[in-house]
Every structure is written in C-alpha cells, then in structure tokens.
Design a protein that fits this description.
Elements (H helix, E strand, L loop, with lengths): L4 H19 L6 E4 L3 H12 L10 H25 L5 H21 L7 H7 L10 H4 L2 E4 L1
Antiparallel strand pairs: 1-2
Helix pairs in contact: 3-4
Amino acid sequence: MNISVEGSVEGDLGIEKMITNLRELDGKAVEAGVFGGFDQKKAMWQEYGTSRGIPSRPFLRNTLYENEGRFANYVAPFITNILNGGSADGVINALGPFMQMSIQRTIAAGGFAPLAASTIAKKGHSKQLIDSGSMYGSIDWRAV
C-alpha cells in the first residue's frame, strides 16, 4: 500500500478551505423583527404588554421558541454548501427571509390574549396584532 504525499496535501488544503469558508460566518448574525419608527414601538408594546392595559402578545419570542429547531434544520444544507466551497452569504440571505416569514406566520396564526370588546368594536374584527397592517408589513430582517 502506498500513501501519496500529494493526496495528503490536497486533503489538508481541502480542510483548510472548509475552515476558511466557515470562518466567513464568524461574527455574523441575522436578526428579524421590526427595526425603527412607530411600528417598532407598537411591536414592543404588543410583545411585552403595557401598564395601560395592553396584554403581552409575544409574537417575536413565540416565533423563536417554536422555530429554533426549524431554523437550525433550514440552514444545515447551506452549511454543507459552505463546506463544499460555497459562500457564507448564502446562509444569511436564506435565513433572513425565512425568519421574517416565520414571524408573520406566528402573527397570522393568532392564539394571543383576546382583544377588549372596545378594541374589537373600533377595529371591526378580533384579529390580534393586525390593525392597519403597518406593523405586520414592517417586519424585516438584516444581517449584522
């Protein structure tokens, strides 16, 4: 049996390339939510509730808790792609919209504290977290 030094060097270079590609992810993160303006304040009031009678409707935390495993499974093929020479940006650019959509699905699914009768009368419906659609539409993602 012969051991090829060239094969060994090529293998080491392959591992080094994988490590280099994975290091592109180091320090990068993806955030999804509402980033700025009055919609961000509304999101915070809904997420945590207020002393003025708005109950907590934790759509951001619920999305994270209910989807942690899904997020990990979703990025697994992208990590494999990085190990095979792909770009780290593919993970970021795929996970961001997926997280954004997951938050919007959580809102659409409902199941939060019911609205007050006065709020239902004012809005004309009982759907929590949806009034004008402004906050829902401002849910976005960003790479940090």
